[in-house]
Write a structure and sequence with these properties.
With 138 residues, this protein is mainly α.
């Protein structure tokens, strides 16, 4: 894939699956700074444009090889919503349950020497209580 370096960070983010991870690793702001030209964003982050282009090309190639490489910009919102619920909500629910069990184990083993773990557990449980009903509504 040929990367057009005259585009903005936002445009590249929308066009290249996996670009957000590349930009995060390079320290390039693709959210609020997404309107910046790509080369300017690279200069601001102090990274080589050529290096980031290579990483973007690799991300694009990896995505093209993926069996579920759907072009979401051309899909309906209902199809996108169904995909998010089916893939990401299921994963998140499973991971929350797994992490809750792991956190309970860590607190029971190390909590006496590290009472801050119980604060982390409380915050995690608050997050869990907020996320689960939200995901069930959808």
């Amino acid at each position: 894939m040929q990367i057009n370096t005259t585009k903005t960070v936002r445009e590249l983010t929308l066009e290249i699956p996996g670009a957000t991870r590349v930009f995060e690793k390079a320290g390039i702001d693709y959210c609020c700074g997404g309107g910046k030209p790509f080369e300017e964003a690279c200069a601001t982050a102090g990274v080589s444009t050529d290096e980031v282009v290579r990483s973007l090309e690799q991300a694009a190639e990896s995505s093209a090889l993926a069996p579920d490489a759907t072009q979401w910009q051309s899909q309906s919102l209902s199809k996108l919503a169904a995909y998010i619920v089916g893939k990401h909500h299921v994963f998140t629910r499973d991971e929350l349950a797994r992490l809750d069990a792991l956190l309970s184990k860590v607190c029971s083993v190390h909590g006496q020497n590290h009472p801050e773990l119980f604060r982390i557990q409380s915050l995690f449980q608050d997050l869990n209580r907020a996320l689960i009903p939200h995901m069930q509504k959808e």
